[in-house]
Amino acid sequence: MVLECEDTLKSLIAVGRNGLLHRSLEQWGCFSLLLKLLLRLSTVLWKGWETLSMMVCCLVSILCSTTSSRWYQLVDNQIVQDCTERFESMCKYTVIYSFKMRRRRLARLAGGQTSQPSTPISTPLTSPQRETPPGPLPGPSGAAPQPVPPAASQSLGLNVHSGTPATSPMGTSGVAYGSQSSEGVSSLSSSPSNSLETQSQSLSRSQSMDIDPASCEKSMSQVDVDSGIENMEVEDSDRREKRNLTEKETSTNSDVSEEQALQLICKILRVSWKEQDRDVIFLPSLAAEFHQNPKDVYSDFKDLIGQILMEVLMMSTQSRVHNPFASLTATSQPIAAAKSPDHRLTLVQPSSQGGSPMGPNAGSFGASSLSSLGACGGGMSCDSASDRFTIEACKETEMLNYLIERFDSVGMEERKAPKMCSQPNVSQLLSNIRSQCISHVALVLQGTLTQPRSPLQQSLLVPYMLCRNLPYGFIQELVRITHQEEEVFRQIFIPILHGLALAVKECSFDSDNFKFPLMALAELCEIKFGKTHPVCNLVTSLPLWCPKPLSPGCGREIQRLSYLGAFFGLSVFAEDDTKVGDKYFSGPAITMENTRVVSQSLQHYLESARGDLFKVLHNILLNGETRDLALNYMAALVNYNVKKAQMQTDDKLVSTDGFMLNFLWVLQQLSMKIKLETVDPHYIFHPRCRLVVSLEETRLKATMEELKSWLTELHEDPTKFSEPKFPTECFFLTLHTHHLSILPGCRRYIRRLRAIRELNRTVEELKNSETQWKDSPLASRHREMLKRCKTQLKKLVRAKACADVGLLDENLLRRCLQFYSTVIQLILRMVDPAYPNISLPLNPEIPKSFAALPEFYIEDVAEFLLFVVQYSPQVLYEPCVQDIVTFLVVFICSQNYIRNPYLIAKLVEVLFVTNPAVQPRTQRFSEMMENHPLSVKQLVPALMKFYTDVEHTGATSEFYDKFTIRYHISTIFKSLWQNIAHHGTFMEEFNSGKQFVRYINMLINDTTFLLDESLESLKRIHEVQEEMKNKEQWDQLPREQQQSRQSQLTQDERVSRSYLALATETVEMFHILTKQVQKPFLRPELGPRLAAMLNFNLQQLCGPKCRDLKVENPEKYGFEPKKLLDQLTDIYLQLDCARFAKAIADDQRSYSRELFEEVISKMRKAGIKSSIAIEKFKLLSEKVEEIVAKNSQSEMDYGDAPDEFKDPLMDTLMTDPVMLPSGNIMDRSIILRHLLNSPTDPFNRQPLTESMLESVPELKERIHAWMREKQGGRPA
User: Fold this and answer.
1) What is the CATH number of the domain that holds 1239?
2) Residues 638-654 pLDDT 10s
3) Which domain does 773 fall in, by range?
4) DSSP assignment of 1110-1178, as one string?
5) Listed residue (467, 133, 104) closest to 306, CA to CA
6) What are 43-52's pLDDT values in tens digits?
7) Residue 1124 phi/psi, 5° resolution?
8) Per-residue pLDDT reduced to its tens digit, 163-172
């Protein structure tokens, strides 16, 4: 018998090679030929099956080749090999189960589940076999039957197992589904709980795709165990018995009869095997089977559903003339039409479509559905180069449209008749329809029914997901059915993931299309079964989940190459995406109001996109299997972008600002609910810390040597470290991401504003000087420069508007402020575990863990506050601000805890910019700072100390830096002085002596330098302006000299403005202090210097050369000579006493009687002071003149003093000699004045303090005796 079967099959193969088989079958209608052959083969012993199975597979391959001659030209062995490639593991199972089941259709390929092979009582479930009648089957219009579908076994009656990988919903992994009994097959969707369990059992049976004797023998033995080889009578008997049992159960358990169930199936699937109609798809093959033997068509409803769906899909696959979906158009309301979010989805029509039913045919269901998608889709416009939002016009799309709408019809039916659908059998039936639709969708997506799709191709399902057209639960069901078979799951969902990534790369915030790929990915990642998120597992298994760096630009690499990089890369910044600025912030119609509204809309877009990004990453972190991979990816983003924090960095080597801010937003959400008690502050020193913190990173207090020593000691005992927990890792990832995202963005924003100001100034200068250069040879060059500047200015203004959206988002800034508040709490707990009950001063012994922290932990807080106060001060009205105030006060008052004085200066600058005199909108913050319990007693002394300490910072720019810092402190002092709570502290400092004396000395130094420099610059400005007024003389100057003078004028104007602002503040501080306290200013080491400074500046304002200070628009530079004269003369009057009068008289460089007379004249003429004040000043002048006369006599008396009585530095007579450690003797007042500026011995530069000075009483007595002698010998 085996030999006879082999001969018959060989003859059929030969006929197929000659291209006669299909034509013969069509003309003769002799499908029964193969049927009888296979029925005979089913009785053959299994030992001969190996050869026969190979031949049957060859025959099936021939039947599938309707257009190609490829299969006709191969030898027998090559045919078998090609069959294996075409149908993958189909060859392994096809013949085995076709012999086992006599009358099954190929439609059962997608239905059913496998039971465990160890269950001997279960019999494989197969599709009902349909014996094809001898004559031709009636077509939809009485035409001849259509060509045989790819899986020709269906039409030929081959009993192919329903789980054949070629057409299984689980794809090509070789998993057989249908090895359950009829009762077992319906259990797949009986309930969510057992369906998942059953699915897991069936999907675990992954098998090889190769056909080899061993695998065939294993499969044959399995069939033998399952009693699959039976004669025809036995199987018919089993089928009838099973069918009767099903009918009894239906009649006893439900009021829904079998006929009603069939009607419901036909209604939902919109099919019929009884009659043809324009509203349904007629199924000729199933009609023939029902006509011939209705009882044997199906074993249960799920079997029937599978047969229906497979026949519909096969008809669509093989139809060349008639579209099986054409009859649905009349009443079809495609799901796409109701759910598409946009109106710009396009339908891609292949150029070689020809007469395909997918062409623009009004009677085609496929065309109708896609037309509705084109009208209501949610994708790119039709002129876009991208096809990510378009639905491809192909046969697979027709199938998907049908299956998706049938899936949705189940839900519609449930909503229409909830009571009926709640009945157990009806609910089970609807569940079967859903699962069968999904199973067949899986087949379509794998290309099993048409052509296998390349993994690099975008999934056909992606456009539906982007357009939001899929019914509720569709994707979840697809994941549920496929995720337990890894290979199939990857085959279906990797193209989907790639398609979403490609789609989002072509999106921008210039439309709302960006949200669809993000929402689709977020929904995929949210799907979970038990504690497992299958899509999260798949995403993190991708090769490009976290690619290793290949070049120095690893930051930009991970953004461009990693899978999530495309999603996080969405940005509104002009540097990242010019489309946003070009669309929303260009054109003459842009107004402030329009810009505000557009900015709010774009910020809403950003919030929406970031929300979906959070969902994605959050679900990956929730999934236990992927949490570690997610943390590795997050740490890589931080570690690869460390260069982004540098002041000067190549932007091409690091991730973009938009990318990092999106990542920051997600981390902020993850850190929001972290309790500080769960965070380990020593994490960055942990051996398993994911973050890379270089040893060269500047630390708060520790030097590099101290850091290395402490870390070595720390790592000697690994037991000191506990396993890092997620809250700790997430917290520090967020902290470091702030350092690499918001802060670089703020710096770039400030640089852009500076560039805009410079360009504006250049444009204004070119415009204002146009009369000078328009007729010159350089006119064309200047015009071109003006044009370039204007163009660049427009680009920068547009970029600023985009940055306003991305960076000045109040919600983002508030979250940053809240997080920094948490960081502050952590740091304060490290320095004082009693926090929030912290007290000052702090412990002199600085904790090593605090000393070793990176400096940017505190610096970033200060920089962020400076930015917020300047550009978004309303953000400071948050409950967390109290912690920030405490933080500022504690570290300004604990300067020994921070090694870098410029870091303290930044904290002081925060107090300065929040001062109401600088930023009125931060008055509440300033009041909180002034009234803080710690600041009332500690802030003034600390600021006064820092005012003097900043004289020497160690930086090359320390000389100029100190003026700005002291200006900030002076402004703060003025504000604090107005607060009564601080008066007591000020008076204590005024009377304490040394600290306040040093402060006054620095104040004198600064005032002297600043007034001198600012007044000198005004003189130069006056000189150039006078030259330019004389046009004739100016035009005679060479052009190079003119340009040089103009350049010098611009520089002097800038210097004058800066120095005058600083000088005015210091003079005002003098004015306030001398009004409250006079004694410290009259000390021997201070009084003469203060008087000399005041005399010099009076000479500048009222002396012979005061006319040189007259400039055009003096208010432009902040020069107010009347106010300055008023304040200087007030200081004279507030210090009026004999000692101060003597100090004035001792100044021989600037003082003169004529000067004071001129001052009195100007004050009286300009009405600067009242007559009473002028009289007081006149009396002071008379006192000074008397002392001057006495000084002249003293000079005559003491002019011949011995050298040992004179100070070696100043060459003046000593009155209180002291000995230095070096052995030199100096006058006390002179050395103390020197120590105020430099605490060193002036002779050897060794450290020197006042306590190291020793009085020389013997020498002092000799000096005074000599002076008395001189006075006694004076002629009367």
Assistant:
1) 3.30.40.10
2) 999 999 998 888 899 99
3) 754-808
4) --SSGGGGT--HHHHHHHHHHHHHHT-SHHHHHHHHH-TTT--HHHHHHHHHHHHHHT-S-HHHHHHHH
5) 104
6) 343 334 444 4
7) -65, -45
8) 333 333 333 3
